[in-house]
Please model this.
Amino acid sequence: MSTQRCPRVSSNLRRGFCVAGLLCMLAGCALIHENGTPYAQIQPEQINLASDIHLARDGWPAARWWTHYRDPQLDALIDRALADAPTMVIARTRVAQAKSDVELARSGSSLQVSALALLNRQHVSASGFLGPFAMNDPAEGLTGPWYTEGIVGLNASLNIDIWGKQRAEIAASLGVSNARLAETSAVELEISTDVAQLYYGIQTTYQLIDLLEESRAVAAFAVEAHDARAARGLEARTQLEEARAQQLAAEQQIVVAQGQIKQFRESLRALIGTGPDGLPVIEPVALPRVQGSLPDTLSYELLARRPDLQALRWYVQSSFDRIDAAKAAFYPSFDIKAFFGFDALHLGDLFTHASQQINLIPGLYLPIFDGGRLNANLGGARAVSNTLIEQYNQAVLNAVRDVAQTGSRLQVLDAQTQLQKQRIDSVAFVRDSAEAHYQRGLASRLTALEARQPVIAEQVSLLTLNGQMLSQEIVLTKALGGGYRADPPVELKPR
Model:
């Protein structure tokens, strides 16, 4: 009976040893110690404006927001900047690079096939394990010591993505690609608002120069009149010098304004990316009426409108996928390699049936001892993800702050503008009265003209307020995303 049971016991022992060995190998795999905890993200319901911020008109800016100003010069400048600006070229290049990275990640999970052709002229060592082949004995098939080996065939390999590492890496690359697209929209918004700011800075300065030239003309007439009176001894030179000082002050302001226009043009030229003679002449036009507005609440809508926030959300999503890939690296990986072709020591025998060679090599790789490399990689991926989450949270808070502050500034500027218009009406009454007295012969022309100076000064103040309101409206448009519309945002689920 013992002789009948021995083979059975031996077989059971072999199975037991195999199972035990496999369990030992699996137990020896690297263990996750550095998973960490994901940071919390700001929830949409936490994103709200203060309830006391209200503007004249509700509604979001349009996608091509600058076209509502109905200024062909501005349209042409922004379109040219979006096409040729160096920063736009860089942004589009980054998108192309991200798309290449996605294709590279996808290729890693696909079947890889390559052709192989090898010619190897070799001298066989008589002292090595191929020593017999160093002999020259044609009767035994030995023609050593020189051989010309030829190999021709196809290599193939396939990684079997059981634990999703490749899928996670592809998803991470897609996240970066989507983030780069959103960043391109952010660059477009930055360029378009910068061009509009510079353009209307030029237009505001044009109108300022017109007012200053009017003030200079009044001062020049006053200088002539006071000079004539002083020459006749009818008055002291004090009034003459006061008038001359006003004239020089106006001329000084005109010089400064003309210099500002040159600075604006150079900044615009550099932004568009054109040469010294590539910027067209900008003709003066009237400033548009400011129609800044805020929605009743920003909430989750802000996230879908701001390209910079969308880019950060995609970077956070990509970091989650990087964490998944880092976790999958702890598990066994499988691949299959294969070769089919011909291998012969003599070129004359290369394409014969006897020289056919077929290799099929399934592979199993277990990360047993790695010196902490995998845990360090996972810990680093988690740290990067948490950093991005905090950057996203801060960006959301900054976005709401920017909108709230800009809306508040617009309210203040609007109130100042209304008061300034009333001041102009009051000062204009004095001017009109002096003009009426002059027409009736009750006052001199000098008195009537000098009454215009306070009105011009108040008009300069009103122009400054209008320029500031227009600038803040553009800033608000940027803070609201400039009409950017994203696809439905991905749901962020930390892993």
